[in-house]
Each structure stands twice: as structure tokens, then as C-alpha cells.
Amino acid sequence: AAKDAGKGQYATYDPELDERANYDAQLGAELRLAMDRGDFRLVFQPVVRLPDGVTVGAEALIRWHHPQRGVIPPDEFIPAAERTGLIVPLGAWVLDEACRTAAGWLHEQGATRSWMVSVNISARQLRESGFARRVAAALHTSGLPAARLMIEVTETAVFDSRAATESLNEIAALGVAIALDDFGTGHSSLGLLRNIPVSVLKVDKSFIDHITHSTAEATIATAMVSLANGLDLGVVAEGVESAAQARQLHLMGYRLSQGYHFARPMPAAEVGELLAAQSPESADSNLAA
Ligand code: C2E
Ligand code: MG
Ligand code: MG
Ligand code: MG
């Protein structure tokens, strides 16, 4: 902070911080307006079983339909929403909307298949007191059974936070599954597995990208699936873009994957059709092991 800086240092004015504060204030105001206008939408990316591509779940991903700038991806506004705290109401909307949508799929098809819907949760949301109650309310209002919901958190969101760990324990007690997202890219990956009630590891795309042409990369991806299998956790390979990757992942022992090779994020109705088109007996595998 400025008062800690020594004499003669220009610490009272940091143009970068100033710019970010302005940027956040502006974007924050726009996000608020967009929430009021209902300019956010969810798309859903199927999570599929290897090797046959049967859909076992879908991840909700937010999109901002900006009246002038068109569709804006989450990486361009989620960080500012986190810094301004707007992620709390926005994330609550995502949770409600995803549960409502998934309850609709269930209603269309009956409960014979074991798919799950997953929702990304930010550190800020997880640390908010009463977050687990919010999850319970989303389930109650939508009628979605707890066993159909998975929340995705990053290692970094949970690391070193008692509040986050408490939220996760409460959420797990509801019967909701917890996935560690972008697994391997955050802090303390392995220690965390002992301390929080995780049921699925989502291996980050960066560990999948080079498995077909790098022995070292293949070794790491193999170690991750063996860790998950040994701990009896589900494991999803993220960002699978080619048939060669899918084949190799299957040989390595991966049973679940997500990526453009199988399906891109799509509107809710298309996921509903995918689920409806699958025969009940083909979807016997469970995302959350
Ligand atoms: P994530 O949770 O790791 O989601 C996976 C991202 O990878 C998605 O990007 C998805 O479209 C993209 N992806 C999936 N398969 C492939 C592939 O084969 N190749 C490539 N290149 N990309 C692939 P998206 O939708 O742009 O989301 C980016 C990140 O934004 C998400 O990463 C998540 O961290 C965050 N996010 C998205 N929606 C929400 C939300 O509702 N709430 C919060 N807090 N964060 C969200
Ligand atoms: Mg995710
Ligand atoms: Mg991820
Ligand atoms: Mg990610």
C-alpha cells in the first residue's frame, strides 16, 4: 500500500491499479445492467463416456449476449465479476438456471438415466456464508434431485480457506457431487484430496493437449488417472479435440471425457435431445463413480 512505500517512490499512483479499478467499475455497472435485462444465457457441454461417446453429463457454461458486442465468453467477464463481488448474484442465477434446465430434461425423459449437470462455482461464492443453503434452495425450487447435481471448484478456490472447506462439506452432505476443475493447475492438488469431499477430478486440458506426441505428457496423464482410480474417484479428461487423443485416453484407463471432438457447448434443448435419443441401458455408467 502507498503508506508502506518509502520516500521518493511513486507508490501513491499506480496507473495499472487505477486502470483496473476503472475497468472493474465500468464493467461492473454493465454486468449489473445485463443481469437486470436478462442478457446472460447458459450453454451446456456434454461429458461423454469413452470410447462410445454416450452422454453422462453436461457442464453449464455462461455466455453474455451483449446488445452491441455480441456473445462474450466467460473469460472476459468472470474475473471482473469475481473482483467486484457480482459473481455472487450472477453465480446464484447460474445455479438456479442450470438446476431448472436439468429438471426439465429429467421431466422430459423420466429418471431412467444416470446423467448429471455440473455448475462452475467461484471462490467468492464458496466462501460466502450460507452458500450450501443456496444450493439446497436451487434444488428444492427446481425439483432436481441432489444426486443429479455436481459443482465444479478449482483447487485454488479451496486452498487455504476454511470457509470454502466448510461449504463443501455441507454441500456434500446434501448429496451433491464435487469435482475439482482444472485439476493439476492449482495449488496443493494432492493434499486437498484428503481434506475435501471430492468425487471427480477434471484433468485440465493442458495435461491432455500433448499426450499423443510426448512421452512425458502421456506419463503425467497416466499418473493422474491411476491416482483417481486408486482413490475411487471419477476422472474426466478435459479439452479432448481429436480421435487420436480419445483413443489414447481410453487405453490409459480414462472412462470419461469432454471436448470439441465429442461435442461443443450447445443450447439446453440440444442436450435434452441427445439425452432423449440414448437408450436407457446404454447410459449405465456414472459420472461421479
Ligand atoms: P472450465 O470450467 O474449465 O470449462 C471448460 C472450458 O473449456 C469451456 O470454456 C469450454 O467451452 C472449453 N472447452 C471444452 N472443450 C474444449 C476443447 O476441446 N478445446 C478447447 N479449446 N476448449 C474446450 P468457456 O465456456 O469459455 O469457459 C471458460 C471458463 O470460464 C470455464 O472453464 C470456467 O472456469 C469459467 N466459467 C464458465 N461458466 C461459468 C459460470 O457459470 N460460473 C463461473 N464461476 N465460471 C464459469
Ligand atoms: Mg468447469
Ligand atoms: Mg476445467
Ligand atoms: Mg478452465
UniProtKB/TrEMBL annotation:
Domain annotation EAL: ranges: 24-279
Residue range from the parent sequence: 494 to 782 of 782
Taxonomy, superkingdom: Bacteria
Protein name: Diguanylate cyclase/phosphodiesterase
Signal peptide: none
